[in-house]
Specification:
The structure is a homodimer. By secondary structure, chain A is an alpha+beta fold. Chain A contains 18 helices and eleven strands. Chains A and B meet through helix 8, helix 9, helix 10, helix 11 and helix 12 of A and helix 8, helix 9, helix 10, helix 11 and helix 12 of B. Chains A, B: This is 3-methylmercaptopropionyl-CoA dehydrogenase.
Chain lengths: ~600, ~600
């Protein structure tokens, strides 16, 4: 049976030794932070995740959600109670503004807690996760009345939120969507249409569900410029703000899926449902991207969560299961066989998993800090730099992070051999659950297009240039200690490949945009390697400094240095191969006549 | 809903244009081959696979197998009838010796048909697939009486066969197995023990099930040198060779698994079951490897089957689903959106899938031919060379082939976006089914160890040296035509990386065997790239020659040349990165203290 414990030590290492979050207490945006509270908060969050969320992960997968004939949906046994405990414990309110009952804690702490919850039970963590996106859209674009009506209840978790984007014929291409909103004449609108793949669209855990729905006004321009966003609650708030009359919307069916069975994926039917415009007319896409960008970072974090729980269970099996003997001779001759962990090829899988997972965690915690800085840093310059970096890194965190989640889950299942394929051991669920994260909130290929189409050219390439400078600067500043130097040198080479790839793109995309399309995924992967490599440089520096200062657990710090070296040796060399591949350009892949792809 | 059609054209291209199988008709080992029959046989086999096997794939997955309280197991609806049709159609007898009712056709044809069946319905194809392994072991090691009793009925499919190796504590490490066989005094043995993960161990499709069971004799040496193989039928054959008395064995339970739900995975309990020794005492491992090596090639073919069916459905979706516009401007302005296939990043996924899948098919069909040549070629030298190549390539086909199966299935699911995650569309089943092939018949890491530990050093490195010479020779002979030259040059570089990797291994493994272990997987992957690259060189040569001669479908041949170029541009560059990685050696991965792998 798979188990979960929150990666507390690694998270605290990042927050305390790498990001030095405590030093920011009291600074703009960190007023609510008390440095002494970081460890207790995370300790409690980890306990909550492993004791309340994790035990429901496998049972939730087996039982799944049930839609009844009346359109109501029941979540798996125990989910509602665990969610209630989450709300009562205040875990939904960590980073929300104090005005609406939030604790205004830094996002660096918020994402750490979200990782724990998502690693413990990805399906269950989706309900509050989606709510968080709705909160952000309302904070940014809602009217004062809308904020007053919805934000406190969403923050407390009494109500949950959803994003209603996709329609059967309109997935990536939202310009195709058909759901309509007709003015009722009283400031409200009648929303009609069918939305699919609506996560947490209907369930029995909250007294109201607040749907943020993309739809077209009657006079809307065609395509994505004619999309507006509406707030469409399941129950219309009455004059006291309580859930009142049932709105004309319902869950038509739920999907049978590969995984995340505990998270209901709903077809939502809107039949003249009453809704209210958020933001301006035809401004829905901009409002949606507020939700979406936050959601993309959060989905990257889902990849991290699955990688972490899979790694833990892969490692514990490797230290428990005995098969074969070490190549250098029996390690435990008195036992029937040695532990799996003596085998270099098993260690390779574990070290790969570790280097990717911990590197991704460092990256995600850094983006958490950057989120805080982008809103609250003291100077405009700092805020802008943080915002540039977040925008640049969002597609990388989403796509590279979820690729890592699937890859690590798969490799840790491999450590278990045949026992990893058997459902009751839990390893195969991690793979099935991790798989969706590569698809939703913009499939990973879309993230790559976002990177090359929007983020790299943004403001004349300012974000990527500032990233290059950051990496070069940190390499130059790196200590000359062995492991640190090794990762710094490998990172320097990879950064050189990234620069070469970006240069190739600048020279070849203008003449033929398909060259941007064919190179996009590889460039994103190289950027992912460099970004995570930068994290390993920082972690190696911090671990090396801690060892020198006699701080922290020495064996933990030494393991960090080994993982940094492993990342340098086993991951960063891919940057060169990826650069060579993308330089082949689009010629061959575009030359194939479409019908030649079909077997006949 | 996913669909399947046999890749007939590509298979015939390989058999006719690349392997020129028809030219061998009448040669030793190809006496039963009539060149004019190749296309009709494969056409019929393809029809059978798509019309009889494929329609049961999704329903078999949903329904799964059922074990009843009496230990009997029911397969999914329709399986038994489809299997009966398979037997009646003679599809189980293609390559079996004529003495036992086989058709003695070349294995190159046999593996082609097996791919079709496995691609159409991997679970259902396992029942005859396992039987095939049992036949091979009996042909090679059975006594005349055993052959007379079992082979005709196994060949016809009236009885099916299984391999009983794994025990709860003994998976990869068969030396740990505990099942015992006590002499009954009448030449038979009483076999007692528990076996797990027994595919097709119990079912209702055949009148008898013939288990080949590894067990220990009372005086057996410890470890893998004390293992013997026994034939233990479910029903003891009576004096007429019919199924008689029930043997003392039963299915204790079946596993709930990630996939291949239509294939029952049984716990088999032997309780003094009557069995007969196959081969000599304590010679079980050698007998098992006869089954196992054939099974490993067949499992690689399962990877091919899933890659193919996933590719077909990915490609057909890309030519059906409309989202977004081409980067170079609308291709079909009259439509709401362009087809997915206009997008370079979608084409990248399709071209990757195509290049890997068709390259793997060529490799597997070649190993089919090599199997025939290893047994029947006119000269000892030819037989030996063919056998060397098969031994060298077996771990590559198994591991690289199944990695491709999983990777391509995953990427084709990605083409479908959210619709690929929904069960009813069928894409996610391909991923779940493909996953097991990386694990069973020796997990892929074990294949890598087999390659570096046995196959590379075998006979002083004779097999790999002869492979190097073969590749160099074919590169030297390659036509100077554009696409052919491009793949030849890229292959030459990759072969250089392989030589460098092999050299590094020779220089570094003797001093520290862990260097062999840490490098094993990467070396296997490089060998896979070179072997598949060689296939693309051959296919490009053949396609180029066909175009020059005006033979065959020109658009098909042109697509071959494009895929060859894509393989050269997008796959072969990985060889260099893999070589650089493995040269880091085992130091870092072995330096981590075992307990540092645990989160605490």
């Amino acid at each position: 049976m798979a188990d979960y414990s929150a990666p507390l030590r690694d998270t605290l290492f990042n927050l305390n030794h790498v990001l030095k979050l405590g030093d920011r207490a009291g600074q703009p945006g960190f007023e609510a932070l008390d440095a002494d509270m970081i460890e207790p908060i995370l300790t409690e969050a980890g306990k909550f995740a492993s004791e309340v969320f994790a035990p429901l992960n496998a049972s939730g997968d087996r039982q799944g959600c049930t839609r009844h004939d009346d359109g109501s949906v029941t979540v798996p046994d125990g989910f509602a109670d665990a969610y209630r405990q989450m709300c009562e414990g205040g875990w939904t309110t960590l980073t929300a503004p104090e005005t609406y009952g939030g604790q205004a804690l830094p996002h660096a702490i918020g994402v750490a807690v979200e990782e724990f919850l998502s690693g413990a039970n990805m399906s269950l963590a989706m309900y509050p996760g989606l709510t968080d996106g709705a909160i952000r859209a309302l904070v940014a674009r809602g009217s004062d009345e809308q904020k007053a009506t919805y934000l406190a209840r969403l923050t407390s978790g009494e109500w949950t939120g959803t994003m209603n984007l996709t329609e059967p014929h309109a997935g990536t291409d939202l310009g195709l969507l058909r759901t309509r909103a007709e003015p009722n004449g009283d400031g409200s609108y009648a929303v009609s249409g069918t939305k699919i793949f609506i996560s947490c669209g209907e369930h029995d855990m909250a007294s109201n569900i607040v749907h943020l729905v993309l739809a077209r006004l009657p006079d809307a321009p065609k395509g994505s410029k004619g999309i507006s966003m509406f707030i469409v609650p399941k129950f219309l708030p009455d004059e006291n703000g309580e859930s009142g009359e049932r709105n004309r919307l319902s869950c038509g069916s739920i999907e049978e899926k590969m995984g995340i069975h505990g998270s209901c994926t709903c077809v939502m039917n809107y039949d003249g449902a009453k809704g209210w415009l958020i933001g301006g007319e035809h401004q829905g896409l901009a409002a949606m991207f507020i939700m979406m960008n936050a959601a993309r970072l959060w989905v990257g974090l889902q990849g991290l969560g699955q990688a972490e729980v899979a790694y833990q269970n892969g490692a514990s099996y490797a230290l428990d299961r005995r098969q074969g003997r070490a190549l250098t001779g029996p390690v435990e001759p008195g036992q029937s066989a040695d532990l799996l962990v003596v085998h270099p090829d098993v260690r390779r899988l574990l070290m790969d998993a570790r280097a990717k997972t911990e590197g991704l965690r460092a990256l995600i915690l850094w983006t958490g800090l950057l989120t805080d800085l982008s809103h609250h840093a003291a100077t405009e310059e700092e805020r802008t730099q943080a915002d540039d970096l977040i925008q640049l890194l969002t597609p990388v965190v989403k796509a590279v992070g979820t690729d890592i989640g699937y890859d690590v889950s798969t490799q840790m299942q491999q450590v278990w051999g045949g026992h990893g394929y058997v459902a009751e051991n839990g390893m195969e669920q991690f793979v099935r659950d991790a798989r969706i994260a590569m698809i939703y909130e913009g499939a990973n290929g879309i993230q790559a297009m976002d990177l090359v189409g929007r983020k790299l050219p943004m403001k004349g390439g300012r974000a990527i240039q500032s990233f290059f400078a950051l990496v070069d600067g940190e390499i130059a500043d790196a200590a000359s200690d062995g492991a640190v130097r090794e990762i710094a040198e490998a990172l320097g080479k990879a950064n050189g490949e990234l620069k070469a790839a970006a240069m190739w793109l600048m020279q070849n995309a203008p003449e033929n945009p398909d060259n941007a399309g064919s190179a996009a995924y590889a460039i994103m992967e190289i950027l992912g390697l460099v970004a995570i490599g930068l994290m390993w440089l920082r972690m190696a520096n911090a671990a090396s400094a801690a060892i020198d200062a006699g701080e922290g657990d020495k064996s933990f710090m030494e393991a960090k240095l080994l993982c940094a070296r492993h990342f340098a040796q086993s991951e960063l060399p891919d940057a060169g191969a990826l650069r060579r591949k993308l330089q082949a350009g689009a010629e061959v892949i575009m030359a194939m006549p479409a019908e030649s792809f079909l077997r006949a």
